[in-house]
Structures are given as C-alpha cells and as structure tokens.
Amino acid sequence: MTEFAAGVSAKLNIRLTQVEAVLNLLAESATIPFIARYRKDQTGGLDEVQIQHIQDEAKAIKEFTERKTFIEKTITEQGKMTEALQDKINKATTIAELEDIYLPYKPKRKTKAQTAKENGLEPLSQLLLEQKELDIKAEAEKYITENVKDADAALQGARDIIAEAINEDADIRAKLRKLFEDTATLQSKVLEDKKEEAAKYKDYFDFSEPIHKVPSHRILAVLRGFLEGYLRIGIAPVEEDALYDIEEKYVTGNLNASVEQVKKAVKDAYKRLLQPSLETEFRTALKTKGDEEAINVFAENLRQLLLSSPLGSKRILAIDPGYRTGCKVVCLDEKGELQHNDLIYVHEANRKYDAEHIIKNLVAKYNIEAFAIGDGTAGRETEQFIKQMQLGLPIFLVNEDGASIYSASEIAREEFGEYDVTVRGSVSIGRRLMDPLAELVKIDPKSIGVGQYQHDVNQFRLKEKLDATVVSCVNQVGVNLNTASKHLLSYVSGIGSTLAENIVKYRNEIGRFTDRNQLLKVPRLGGKAYEQCAGFLRVKNGSNPLDESAVHPEAYKLVQQMANDLNADVKTLIGNEQLLKNVDAKKYATEEIGELTIKDILKELNKPGLDPRSELEQFEFANIYKIEEVKEGMVLPGVVTNITRFGAFVDIGVKQDGLVHVSEIAHQYITDPNEVLKLNDKVQVKVLEIDLPRKRIALSIKQTQEAPQRKSQNTNTKFQTGGVKMQGNNGGNKFQSNKKQEEDLSNLNVNDALAALKKKFGK
After folding, report:
1. In this model, does residue 349 exceed pLDDT 70?
2. In terms of Cα–Cα distance, which of 37, 35, 168 is closest to 103?
3. pLDDT digits over 590-609, tens only?
4. Is 513 helix (H, G, I), strand (E, B) or coil?
5. How distant is the alpha carbon of residue 79 from its chain centre?
6. Which fold has domain 627-757?
7. Inter-residue contact 617 to 682 (CB < 8 Å)
C-alpha cells in the first residue's frame, strides 16, 4: 500500500519517509509491536498508536481509491462520462461525495420518476422547471394517455421527475449534509403501546439532542431502544431550513402556478427522498461514532486490566467463595500448577473448626505464601475468616469477572479435563493474582466486565481492536518462553495459534529452552517468524544472559562489541550502570542499527527484562459488607473497577459498585475520567446517595479532597485504609443535584449497560 503513502502523510501530518517505512514493513508482514520496538530507526521512533493510524488511514485511502475507480469505470461504460463529471470525481475527497456524484448513474429499482419518464412526462417536468406563467392544467392535459389518467396524474408524474433530480443533485446533497452536521438533532419518542415494557428507556421517551453533542453512551442507548421496538427515532434539522436550501437553487421565478408545482416537488424530494436518505446516513455515522468510542473505552480499560500488577511466582492458596455450596480451595505452586484441591464450609458455625484445620494444614504442607480470594458472592466474608486465623500471610481479593466463563471453556477443559468447573474457577483466581495478563488472555475480553455497551457495537471491529490491545500488552510485558501457555504465546508478535502449539510441544520434548536460537528448531517456525518474536520471548537462566532481556538477537554482536571495547564480558555489562554510562551510542550506529535502537539497547541493558507493570499493593476495604450498611456521608476506601465516558465505577466492598460521575471526580473540569483515573486505582470516595430499590450508590472523589485553591494536590488521591469516616453532606450532592449529572446517571437505566458496567452479583 506504499502508493498511498503521500495521502497518509498529508492526512496524519507524519513525514512521508516515516509513512513509507511503516507501509513497507507492514507489507513485509512485520507486526505493529515489532515495528514500534525494533525498527525505530526506520520509522523515526513512531509508537504503536501512530503506526496503527498509518495502517488504518492507508486502508481507508485504498478503499476510497478502489471505489473511485469502480465509479469511473461504470459511468464510462454507460457512455456518460464528461470532462466536467470527471473533474467533479477528481475533486471528491470522501466516499459520501463520490456516492452523491454516482447516484444518478447507479443501477436502481424502478422509481416513480422512471415510470413518469416512460409515460412521456419529462417534457412537462422541464416546462414546470422553467417556472413561466402558464395554464399548467391545460399543458398537463396534453399528456393524458392510457397510463396517465388526468391532468393531476400528469402533474404528479412531472413532480416525481423533478423530485428525483433534486435528490440526485450532488450539490444539494452536500449542502444538506452540512446542514445535518451543524443543526440536526437526534430525537426519540416511546411507542404509546410499549410504555410499560419500555420502562428502562424512560429517559428517552421524549428525547432530543443535537447530533454533534450527543455522547456515545446515549447514542447507543437510543439505538438499542429503537432496535428493540420501543422507541421511534428521527434525525433531522429544522425542515424549513432544509427546504430553504433546496428552494434557493430550484425556485427561481415569481410566485405562479408553475412555481407552486416546483415547491411541491421540492418538499416531496426532501421528505420522501433526501431526509430519509440522509437520516440513514447519519444514523450509520452516529452508530459508528458510538461504536468507536465504546470500543476505545473498552480497549483502554482492557489494557489497564491486562497490565494490572502481578504478585509474581508465589505459592498460592486460592479460594472460590460460596455460602451453601462451600468454598472451593486449590493450592498452586510457583508456576501456577495445581497441587491440591479441597472444599471447606466457612459460613456454617458447626463446620468452621474443620475449615480452619484444613487451611492450616494446606498452608504448612504446600508452603503457601499468599491467599487469593474471589471477590464475588461471600468473598468479603471468606476474607474475614482467613484474616481471623492470623496466619501472617498476605490476603488478596481478586476480581473474578470472567472466571466462570474460563472454567466452562474449551481451554479450561484442555488444561483441567479431570476437574469440575469449580476447581477450574479457583485455579483461574489464583493464577490471576500471580499474573493477570497470562490468565486473562484465556478469556474472551467481552466477558471480563470492563466494557461499555460492548454487545451493541460492531462485533468485528470490537474483536479487531481488543485483539490488537491484547497483542500490544503481551509484547509490551514480554513472555517467559519456558512457562507461557500456548494461549499466551499465540499473542506474541509473529507466532499465532499454530506456532504456539508447536512451541509448547517442542518444549515438552526437550524439557526447557536454554537459548532463543532453539526456536529455529520448532517445526514451521522460520526466519521471519523468529525475527518477529525473538525479542519478546524471555529465556530465564539460559546459556546467554541477553536472552533474558528485550535486546533482539540481531543486536547481540553489537552488545558483544560494546563489552569488548570496555574490556568486560556481556554478563558483567548487563545491569552495570557505571560501565554503560561510558558507551557512546553514536559510535556504534550503523546503517542497520541506528542511534534510536542503540539507546533502547542501553536502556534495556541497564534494567534487563524489567516488567513495565507496577508492584502489587495490598488493599483493605472498610468494615462494611452489604449495601444496606452504607450511609450517606461515609468516606470509604475503594478500587476503580470500570471507567466510562460518563464516570468511574468504584468497588467499596459491598458487592455493588458505586458510580463517581465525571463531575465528581476532580475539582478541575475534565471530560474524560481517564485524565485522572486508571483501572485498579485505590481511591477514597464519599457516599452521596444510596438508592436501595435500584441498588445504586452515588459517590464522589473530589469531596474527599481539598479544592486546589486551598491546597495543591494530585486529584488521584490514594486511599487510606482503616475504618469508616463520616462527614457532612456539603449541601447534599445527590442524584438530582446537577442537571448534567442527573441526565448522565439516568441513562444507566439501560439494563445491559448496567450489567456490563457493574460487577455481577454472585456467580
């Protein structure tokens, strides 16, 4: 796609040489993570986001070019291409403009206008368009035939011809499209006979908002109500404005009978043809906009979740809590391998002693180093039971969204076919604590619980974006070649599912990899795949110390040269800050490996294999366990579990996340919660209101902080553990306290949105 480089460069304002380099590398099957990490010298240091934009823009330009070629060919074959028409096509910059030009030449089903033309009424339509003073009835009677019953039918046919001509006028369509963009509103009304059934859409029973202002979550909510048959929707500007824009071109004479006929044709053209057509176009555009924003929200949340802090290789006792059915317990070794499983009952007084005895024995027998407890049903109570035993080990509540999906999946059956789903779920909880990324890649991202309207959006685009996010995260962190599952390996640059399976089979045959070069012995893993994946795969304690780092094998000779010049060996050079300070990047730059890559190599040698994820911190909720115990004015520690455009959901330990509306996050004005919050942030929140019937909790972060004018501080204040603090309500910022807040919060009535945005009750 390098032929599109100039257009991409102009559109994205990125140097042509950089765009050409990226497109050439992509054409050679290089992956985006590989290009961003190991081909910086060729791309001028472009990051993954910029490279993705180049790929997307090149694809869009290719689609435009192919459509333009098709339209030119079709019109030419019809014998209707003219210099003026070709010039118009050449000046078009969007697919919509091309389609407007093509509309009169596009094959279509038989229209009213075509029927009128077949009935010989085109001369009458031309006569009317001249808008002269004449006896139109007498003129129309001249066209009465077997198919045209009377003068009125003749005039109607003539108006149909005029209406179609107006509809196919590219200039008029462009003018009205601009009017729609600037002034059209999205409107919805409930179907009268569906009011009761449509209760969850009550905020949209009589709704109107300019399309250039309506946020993505409201677009998707209205469209869902429409598709489910509860709402009528419309997208249109003020009709008089649209008619004025058309009449300005088509109504040219003083008021007379002919002018009246043209005005009727104008109105018909707009109401029957133009408005429905543009409404469909803008509905599609709004849907695409809503989809993209929702997908981007989901992808950003997924990225933050995948890059959650890992506990690392520890021996874990993991518990999937339950009341009546008991708590399923598993013991995992440092590699996440299942050592033992058991069942305890901690919520029945007469069985607590036995449960304590089992836990103590397992901790001793398997040298347990930490507890992982699922945070769903009975999670907090099980945490308290373990705490009361005072075993002196760290205890972590682990988000178990998606664990049940994993436990019933083909992947889980493959890994633990002899165990039931409860054991598999417990293993997933334990492994998620050790390494969230390695475990979460086994679950369909849509089931992880951090999305916004993910079931409403374009599913192909969603999968494409989420897969790209997973690939980016996996390659950013790097993968241990000797412990990674085939599912994790499949996301490594250049590998995929078949090669991942081959790597695992080969690993099982040889016991373990001792150096990266052994990858070339894996069946079907050739030189290109090796080039793409080697730098992202780590060999711990192998024969070459560089195999444990992100230094690519193609640069090993260069590192050896650096070590020789410093009279040291490579092992001594790694991690030796003093030695590395003496390396002049410019001295080692070549055509193949430039300064940007060398600086990356030096940075990596300083801290080889450094995990970009932060260290895991312990966290404690306040001593409350259910929504009924939450009171207005409480200040509580919480964890951010989901971020949307309208706010952030925070877990305060009562099995129901609360919402911090975007207006209650920071003292300064923000439009996106991501400006100051990230998933898994520990924050303090103040309870503004509890709505028990609807199980809603309104929270504020900013009301736990001083305003900036009194004391400068980071808006993302970390929590302080311990107890519950009560405060006054500062005037009572409740659900109804702010029109914008009320509007956005009320939109959460849509059941599926709540399901996607809130943590689930129970299993």
Report:
1. yes
2. 168
3. 888 999 999 999 999 998 88
4. coil
5. 47
6. OB fold (Dihydrolipoamide Acetyltransferase, E2P) (2.40.50)
7. yes
Exposed, middle or buried by CB within 10 Å (0-12, 13-18, 19+), for 128?
buried
Token code pair at residue 488: 């994790």
Which residue matches tokens 């509890």?
690
Q: What are the phi and psi torsion angles at 256 (to 5°)?
A: -155, -175
Please give the torsion angle defined by the CA atoms of residues 515, 517, 522 and 525, in that order, rounded to the nearest 10 degrees: 140
Q: Reduce the DSSP state of residue 701 to 3 states and report it.
A: coil
What CA–CA distance (Å, rounded) separates 428 from 424?
6
State how far the alpha carbon of 633 is from the alpha carbons of 437, 639, 684, in Å.
37, 18, 12
CA distance 566 to 573: 9
In this prediction, residue 716 carries a pLDDT of: 44
pLDDT band at 447 (very low <50, low <70, confident <90, very high): confident
Question: Per DSSP, what are the bridge partners of residue 330?
Answer: 318, 341
Confidence at residue 377, expressed as pLDDT on a 0 to 100 scale: 86
CATH hierarchy code of domain 2-105: 1.10.10.650
| Torsion angle defined by CA atoms of residues 408, 414, 420 and 424, in that order, rounded to the nearest 10 degrees | -70
Tell me: pLDDT of 747 over 70: no
Residue with tokens 């709505």: 691
Structural domain 316-434, CATH architecture = 2-Layer Sandwich (3.30)
Averaged pLDDT score across all residues of the chain: 89
By C-alpha distance, which of 643, 720, 712, 171 is closest to 451? 643
Domain locations along the chain: 2-105, 112-299, 316-434, 627-757
Distance between CA atoms of 507 and 515, rounded to whole angstroms?
12
What confidence tens digit (pLDDT) does each residue in 281-325 have?
A: 999 999 999 899 889 988 998 999 999 999 999 999 999 999 888
Q: Which pTM was predicted? A: 0.82
Sheet holding 327-332, edge to edge: 338-344, 327-332, 316-320, 370-374, 395-398
Residue 690 · residue 672 · CB < 8 Å: no
Tokens 């019953």 map to which residue? 149
CATH domain 112-299 topology: Tex N-terminal region-like (1.10.3500)
Measured distance CA(740)–CA(40) in Å, rounded: 45
Other beta carbons less than 10 A from residue 661's beta carbon: 22
- In this prediction, residues 124-149 reach a mean pLDDT of 94
